[in-house]
Amino acid sequence: MSTPGAPYIEVRGLARHFDVSKPLLNRVIEGQPRLILKAVDGIDFAIRKGETLSLVGESGCGKSTVARLIVGLYKPTRGQILFEGTDMGSLATRAEERALRKRFQMIFQDPYASLNPRWRVADIVAEPIRAHRLSSDPTEIRRRVDELLRQVGLSPADGEKFPHEFSGGQRQRISIARALSSNPEFLVCDEPTSALDVSVQAQILNLMKDLQRELGLTYLFISHNLAVVFHISDRVGVMYLGRLVELADARALFENPQHPYTRMLLDAIPDLDMTGRARTPVAGEVPNPLDPPKGCAFNPRCPFANDRCRTERPELRPVANGGVAACHAVEEGRLAAAPRLAPA
Amino acid sequence: MAEAPILEVKNLRVEFPTRRGTLVAVDDISFSIAPGEVLGVVGESGAGKSMTGAAVIGLIEPPGRIAGGSISLAGRRIDDLPYEEMRKVRGREIGAIFQDPLTSLNPLYTIGRQITETILTHLPVSPAEAQQRAIGLLREVGIPAAEKRIDHYPHQFSGGMRQRVVIALALAANPKLIIADEPTTALDVSIQAQIIALIKKLCCEHGAAVMLVTHDMGVIAETADRVAVMYAGRIAEIGPVRDVIKAARHPYTDGLMASIPKVGRTDARLAQIDGAMPRLNAIPRGCAFNPRCTKAFDRCRAERPEPMRVGNSDVACWLYDAGQGGTR
Asked: How far apart are the C-alpha atoms of A72 and B74, rounded to whole Å?
């Protein structure tokens, strides 16, 4: 069913708007219009099989909404999600959708909230097997759960315990075992290490890389931590207020960032090597997403903004680092290249 | 350190009695902070870093209690003060900045009222002077149009601006010591950089000592002058920030630094410390880190190391005991 050469996952013009208006009666009495929050406002990207694409950005940029749209937790307002060339929105029956969905899984940020505290670990891990009716034989399920627990670095005996008996890192291992139990090919990971301590984060990132190699997994990785993203990604997309502002190969993006917002994010990474590198702190904060600025959404914070930036919204165009960026200043060559990161 | 320290903590011990025995959250730690100095306290969750901060401001929740040692502020013992006395010290002499700016502010009062109230409680000024001082403070922490914003309520500020208000509130009475517990953890990276720069600048200008508690080594590298690395309720290593970050001596600090992903480093795998920090009810004998330590030997499993001088740092590790001949 797959078209040769087609990307594994492709997202076209994907948007998700949320209606956050007050109730009708309030609106009528107070004379207020509807309020629409454009959490994701038309983004395009593709993921190749076996690669890791990361989306980075600050809170409210829509990166988690994209993750939820792809796994089907939200319905898109507009746009398409193509899985091996098949439009997820065009599937006629639940059965067809179910067959595709079982090849996706998601890992959530908070390993405390995403595991049912009343279930034993073995049942938590076996849930996708049962939900997708992959097996109904208890011994076979048990064997599979034991294998999964071993695979993520826990012991089969841990299956009898409850989530509260585990530390944050171990719980995230349980989440990963659960995600893997339906033999998915594609994992959407929404900030999987943000709630963990750094030494535990290293364990989980290593585990995720090992599993990717062994099982040929494809990852969509959502994070706000650029160092983690650099470490885990093949390609990186930078989001700002519901849109992609830059997308490039990870190395190219970090070595030669184009969009001023990407440059700002890279400058904000704390300098652990203590080189005394000069930073250009960017003033301002992310604007209210209910009332985004006209033109380029980044223009109020951008040191390079001019009149065109305040009126005309830039589209993604190919740029010098081999990726794409949505910036008038870059397109017009108003912005000098500013290489970062001497490779260590 | 020529100047007398603002804060001096000696052999501090914090205990929590439970039905299954006493848990020791902070176990015999000592450190001091000089005027104008930023001491970073890092460690993973449960290492006792926030508990140390809470002990200094006298806000340990019962049944937890300070079971030993002393805390002195500018030469005066504060760990045994009665509650009312300690209340005066908090705010007047110690300012606090917590992780979540929304919970540190009262949602029912304007920020101006909260700041002037703090100033009037602690300083002998008139209400008009307090109002002027509050506006000055807000301006100093970088809040635009401070004279208008002073009449706004906390929910009318964004996260970053709210944290600036909390910083202004902490500085209101010109305290000698500021305790900042994860001040940037709830903020976005670009805002985080702004707040770090602000804390550092204000601490220099006001000459206050700062105890910066965080789990983020990046924040420490940017802000602190000295850093204490905590593990299982004890200080594993304390020293100048450059020494600790660039040339960690304790195997735990070393492992911790290596496990942080860095932009530009292309190793396929991150160095990892296997296992997890022990729970307080199951702290191993000897050095608490010994089961996870790749360099542990017999003595580490039997005897608890006390801090010893290595270069400019104090390191609690048997590798550096003279008799053993250090490996580095």
From this structure: 59
What residues in B contact A265, CB-CB < 8 Å?
189-190
Name the percent of chain B lying above pLDDT 70: 97
Rg of chain B on CA atoms, in Å: 21
Together in a domain, A265 and A213: no
Q: Which of B191, B215, B257 sits opposite A197 (nearest CB)?
A: B215
Calculate how close chain A gets to B310, using CA atoms only, in Å.
21
Looking at the fold, whether A110 and A217 belong to one and the same domain comes out as yes
Q: Give residue-wise pLDDT tens across range B292-320.
A: 999 999 999 999 999 999 999 999 999 99
Q: Is B189 touching A (CB cutoff 8 A)?
A: yes
Q: Are residues A253 and A216 in the same domain?
A: no
Q: Which of A43-52, A58-67, A322-331 has the lowest mean pLDDT?
A: A58-67
Residue ranges making up the domain that contains A205: 9-233
Sign of the CA dihedral running A106, A79, A243, A35: negative
A198 → closest Cβ in B241, B242, B259: B259
Q: Does residue A2 fall inside a structural domain?
A: no
Count of C-beta atoms within a 10 Å radius of residue A130:
14
Q: Mutating which of A197, A266, A280, A302 best tests the B interface, going by the most B Cβ atoms within 10 A?
A: A197
B 223-242 residues with CB < 8 A to A:
241-242
Q: Which of B197, B218, B221 sits opposite A281 (nearest CB)?
A: B197
What is the average pLDDT across B61-90? 91
Closest C-alpha among A197, A14, A322, A223 to residue B215:
A197
Nearest Cα residue to B220 out of B231, B212, B232: B212
- Name the residue among B259, B264, B269 with its Cβ closest to that of A199: B259
Q: Are residues A29 and A157 in the same domain?
A: yes
- Chain A residues touching B259 at Cβ < 8 A: 198-199, 201-202
User: Residue A279 domain-assigned?
Assistant: no
> pLDDT at position A214, please?
92
Q: How many CB atoms lie under 10 A from the CB of residue B126?
A: 9
Same domain, A252 and A118: no
How far is the alpha carbon of B189 from chain A, nearest alpha carbon, in Å? 6
Interface contact B197, partner A, CB < 8 A: yes
In a domain, A197, yes or no: yes
- List, in order, residues 6 or more apart from B282 with CB less than 8 Å away: none
Q: How far is A106 from chain B (nearest CA, A)?
A: 23
Instruction: Give the model's pLDDT for residue B199.
Output: 85
Residue A158 in any domain: the answer is: yes
How far is Cα B188 from Cα B328, in angstroms, rounded to an integer?
A: 38
Q: What pLDDT band is residue A168 in, cutting at 50, 70 and 90?
A: confident
**Count of domains forming chain A:** 2
Q: Judge if A226 and A270 occupy the same domain.
A: no
C-alpha distance from residue A244 to each of A63, A152, A296, B218 (Å): 10, 33, 11, 27
- Do A131 and A108 share a structural domain? yes
In tens, the pLDDT along B211-229 reads 999 988 888 988 899 999 9
CATH of the domain at A46: 3.40.50.300
> Out of A197, A202, A270, whose CB is closest to B218?
A270
Say how many CB pairs under 8 Å bridge A and B: 123
Q: Do A231 and B265 touch (CB under 8 A)?
A: yes
Mean pLDDT of B25-33: 93
Q: Which chain B residue has its CA at the smallest distance from A269's CA?
A: B189
3-state secondary structure (DSSP) of residue B304: coil
The alpha carbon of residue B115 is apart from the nearest alpha carbon of chain A, in Å, by: 23
Q: If pLDDT is split at 50, 70 and 90, which confidence band does A343 have?
A: very low
- Based on the fold, state whether residues A221 and A254 are members of the same structural domain: no
